[in-house]
Amino acid sequence: TQLLEQSPQFLSIQEGENLTVYCNSSSVFSSLQWYRQEPGEGPVLLVTVVTGGEVKKLKRLTFQFGDARKDSSLHITAAQPGDTGLYLCAGVKVNDYKLSFGAGTTVTVRA
Amino acid sequence: EAGVVQSPRYKIIEKKQPVAFWCNPISGHNTLYWYLQNLGQGPELLIRYENEEAVDDSQLPKDRFSAERLKGVDSTLKIQPAELGDSAVYLCASSPGLAGSTDTQYFGPGTRLTVL
């Protein structure tokens, strides 16, 4: 079983719609990161959250870290075709250094 | 500033053949990681170097995989002999300091290995 469970696995929406991707675990994390990966490229860091309940915004993307630091969500408002990609959450457990990744959510935004 | 460089980008080999991947991290980055990413999955750590020392190789299948970072800069990951199940993308990443909970890792584009 994966340390971080992402849902949904696939998401296909029309341009202009909103979407939310979830990342859940039974473990507590000292930090959690979201990456976007495009075909043929490595993951690119979008955001790091470290405080329970923290909300960060990056243009049309909103990231939230759960109060208990066990889960996170990524919300995209008015999605655009350029948002298409594989979204990965990754976390470092408390008292650890290792970054563990979820399996990812493949997002497709249709024009 | 140049990013993490990996070569080759693609490699196709027959099973039982050897293969090597090369990574040049971002200049000045102390920590270097090799990850394996299977299709439809997130990256999984194979080995982590701090300078030239392999500080975590617990996930590296040592019967066929080896890695080195002799001068604490670039690194090579080798598989000998390759098996069908080794087909995957091999990602290299580097980070400025020692591994920590918020140290940002910068990924290269990866090497896509296909074993026939």
Descriptive tags:
heterodimer; A: 111 residues; mainly beta; 5-stranded antiparallel β-sheet; 11 strands; 0% helix; B: 7-stranded mixed β-sheet; globular
Describe the model.
The complex is a heterodimer of chains A (111) and B (116). Chain A is built from no helices and 11 strands. Chain A has strands at residues 5-7, 10-14, 19-24, 29-37, 44-49, 55-58, 61-65, 71-76, 85-93, 99-101, 105-110. The radius of gyration of chain A is 13 Å and the shape is globular. The mean pLDDT of chain A is 95. Chain B has strands at 5-7, 10-13, 19-24, 31-37, 44-50, 53-56, 65-68, 75-79, 88-95, 106-107, 111-115. In chain B, the strands form 2 sheets. In chain B, strands 2, 4, 5, 6, 9, 10 and 11 form a 7-stranded mixed β-sheet that branches. In chain B, β4 (31-37) and β5 form a beta hairpin. Chains A and B meet through β5 and β9 of A and β5 and β10 of B.
Succession of helices and strands of chain A: EEEEEEEEEEE
Assess the beta-strand content of chain B as a share of residues.
over 45%
Low-confidence segments of chain B, given as residue ranges, are: none
The secondary-structure class of chain A comes to: mainly beta
Contiguous helical run count of chain A:
0
What profile does the largest beta sheet of chain A have? 6 strands, mixed
Rg of chain B (CA only): 13 Å
Helix share bin of chain B: under 10%
Average predicted confidence as pLDDT of chain B: 93
* Terminal-residue CA separation of chain A: 35 Å
Shape of chain A: globular
Structural class of chain B: mainly beta
Oligomeric state of shown chains: heterodimer
Broad shape of chain B: globular
Counted by DSSP, the helix tally of chain B is 0
How helix-rich are the residues of chain A, as a percent range? under 10%
Q: Report the strand count of chain A.
A: 11
Please give the largest β-sheet of chain B.
7 strands, mixed
Our estimate of the beta-strand percent of chain A is over 45%
Mean pLDDT of chain A: 95
Distance between the termini of chain B: 37 Å
